[in-house]
Amino acid sequence: MPTLGIAIVGAGMIGAVHRRAALLAGAEVRGVAASSPQRSHEAAQSWNVARAYRDIEEVITDPQVQVVHVCTPNHLHRAMAQAALEAGKHVICEKPLATSLEDAQALAALAASRGLVATVPFVYRYHPVVREARARIAQGDLGPLHLIHGSYLQDWLLDPASNNWRVDPALGGTSRVFADIGSHWCDLVEWISGERFAEVSAAFSTVIAERGAVSGQSFSTPTAASTMQPVTSEDVAAAMFRTGAGTLASLTVSQVSAGRHNRLWFEIDGAKASVAFNQEDAERLWIGLPDQREKIFVRGPGAGSDDQRRLSVLPAGHAQGYAQCFEAFVADTYRAIEGERPQGLPTFEDGLRSAQIVDRVIASARSRAWTTIG
Ligand code: SOE
Predict the structure, then answer these.
(1) Band of residue 374 on the pLDDT scale cut at 50, 70, 90
(2) Residue 262 Cα to ligand 1 middle (Å)
(3) Which atom belonging to ligand 1 lies closest to the Cα atom of 255?
(4) What beta strand segments (E) does the chain contain?
(5) Mean pLDDT within 278-282
(6) Is-contact 276 269, C-beta < 8 A?
């Protein structure tokens, strides 16, 4: 296959992660469009790429670009992804796919009608032991499910002097912590368990009422106390779900939990066994068994399900993590463009599903009532 030409829109932390994954997957990173022509030039220089695009128009009219990676703040996802799809480009769009359900619906419908590959980086699906958990549940090792529970905790917004575009609903969307990271957890456990959430009862809390002025950086940069601004998006959230099959689930999310940097954790308990996974200790899957027995499945290419082996690119004990998940996701997206059908590739349909859940979670938090997800 000829080398894919790609462009990245957005030059923050996650844009750099996409660039690295694209290079490792064998693509040519043609250029970058950042928040201003000046920033595009700076990013193009530091990334060593040929083009510093002025805007999305220049990106989509570059005939050598076949794939556009949308890595902007959330409120721009719809416009950027739509422009790229309408120009016939394949798209990887960061999550949340859009800041409203309507926008996510429009993007999923557009991608489907154009027959283009359009994916969303729900990258935690690419931890090999996550694949192992999914395979074991699919082959009935856990039996009927009894309970799904877990949390996704971070601490990068613990300091009230810290701020970020995600905090501002005009840039990040109405929901912050739930849409940003709760969305990952929901995508992951629905995909692993094979069960879909049918209803939700959720609550949000903004525990830090004022923060320093938004710095424009991807991650928080403390600012002077004199520039404090009121905050309306949630710092923490709790949600109870019931799946269509009747299984109860609970989730706690936070971006203000000291010492928890990126701790996505879940446990799925069935009639015959349980599995538990911690993203910060991603080489191991805990398997709980009856009669005081437990096992640890260790990631590696030599054992376990086909998918687990395929994604174990390093020998056991040579730690894989977030970066390898991203690399595998981007490589699978490119394989799909070449006509393959990689297992578990998260598409705009999954981005739309996530937008549906976020929309219903917000509705439930507002109404303080159990709400149907559909
Ligand atoms: C910040 O909360 C963030 O970068 C998320 O936006 C990512 O989706 C998550 O993978 C890590 O944390």
Answers:
(1) confident
(2) 8
(3) 2
(4) 5-9, 28-33, 51-52, 67-70, 90-93, 118-119, 145-153, 197-205, 210-211, 229-230, 236-243, 248-254, 263-270, 274-278, 284-289, 293-298, 371-372
(5) 98
(6) no
Residue 223: the pLDDT is: 56
For residue 241, give every residue at least 6 positions away whose Cβ sits within 8 Å of its Cβ, in sequence order, or none: 148, 197, 198, 199, 200, 248, 249, 250, 251, 373
Inform me whether the pLDDT recorded for 103 exceeds 80. Answer: yes
Does the Cβ of 94 fall within 6 Å of ligand 1? no
Q: Is the CB of 64 under 6 A from ligand 1?
A: no
Please name which of 310, 315, 311, 309 lies closest in space to residue 326, comparing C-alpha atoms.
311
**355 CB contacts (<8 Å, ≥6 apart)?**
96, 97, 98, 100, 101, 103, 104, 105
- Place 199 in a pLDDT band, splitting at 50, 70 and 90: very high
Q: Whose CA is nearest to atom 9 of ligand 1?
A: 181
What's the gap in Å between 290 CA and the centre of ligand 1?
36
Rg from Cα positions in the chain: 20
Percentage above 70 pLDDT, the chain:
97
**164 Cβ closer than 6 Å to some ligand 1 atom:** no
pLDDT of res. 275? 99
pTM, entire model: 0.96
- What is the number of residues in the chain? 374
